[in-house]
Amino acid sequence: MGPVTATETRRAVEAVWRIESARVIAGLTRMVHDVGLAEELAQDALVAALEQWPESGVPRNPGAWLMTVAKRRVVDMLRRRERLEEKVAQLGRELQTSDDATAAEIEAALEDHIEDDVLRLMFVACHPVLSTEARVALTLRLLGGLTTDEIARAFLVPEPTVAKRIVRAKRTLTDAKVPFEVPEGAEREARLSSVLEVVYLVFNEGYSATAGDDWMRPEMCAEALRLGRMLARLVPSEPEVHGLVALMEIQESRSAARVGPSGEPIRLLDQDRGRWNQLHIRRGLAALARAEALGGSLGPYALQAAIAACHARARTAGETDWARMAALYGSLAALTSSPIVELNRAVAVGMAYGPEAGLALADALAGEPALKDYHLLPSVRGDLLVKLGRTDEARTEFERAAALTRNGRERALLLGRAAACGAA
């Protein structure tokens, strides 16, 4: 094996950072009680790694190395500020022996609080005091280890816009004196809901990109799944966490079948189910079983996972239990009062009980303000109208849907369906 190049070392540093950054930033936040400062200190450690590892090689325990360097930055900072002398002395004593300590000893010290720290960091990054866009950007930055440029490219917004969101978010958290803690009681439930919302927003942006020319962005799906699995380990007694993981796993199982050779989207009912990833399906069904085993009524994510499981368990589209799916959508609609859920129920009802029944439900949503510019309403109506043989009306609906979508791949699919109606 030849010598390791600087490029290979840099890639190794970036890979380590993606894995370890959340742990390091979380541990530092516990020490300095300021998430913005903690990230700056962690970034200092990353710069040190980029400078030193090409010469010294990647250490046996890179996470502990980064944390040790960052702790030294904390000591230096506290000394410069000439305060918290006792804390300086304590951290100094810890670091006096760090050069001689084994990687296992450093890791043991790091693990004392790390799982709790990462969970606290999640709750801080997704705090309701921040806008949804800020929560998403800060979560990807602090817990995903993504650069500002990577986040900007994922959401097709200018890099300076993302940078400003992150800076403002950290300043807002500091000004609001958001505590570095896991909330309790009703606040915990509300805050956990915010965390789950952010993770699923990231997943959905990867699964069906809202804008641009790509139908999917797999790296966003992978990041959301990583965050979801991490959260499930941290709060194993929360059924909705397992429900969200189940939903993402089952949806991710279809990724390879969702696009054709040229990247064009393939509708669910037209997909080759032999290309569905059985490992993701097994993981998803297991996570759903964990959510159900915890008892109580299923929440929104677990219900959506149960709906996805109806597809996953069917070998063909014709074998899908559409009646059960329609009932599950009914339960979900009662829970969320969402017109988008009602639109999905219309699809399931149309499959279970005929296109006329589905179209009646879809038509009832025509006046919903939330669906006024939602491209899937005319798309669903188009599907149902085709099944009823009303192709002229269907063509108009597909053309309207194409005009509303901001995704280039989806627009091409809808225009193709409109053209097919004209040829019928």
TrEMBL record:
Domain RNA polymerase sigma factor 70 region 4 type: residue ranges: 122-173
Family membership: Belongs to the sigma-70 factor family. ECF subfamily.
Domain RNA polymerase sigma-70 region: 23-83
Keyword presence, Iron-sulfur: no
Xref: Pfam families: DUF6596, Sigma70_r2, Sigma70_r4_2
Superkingdom of this protein's organism: Bacteria
Name of this protein: RNA polymerase sigma factor
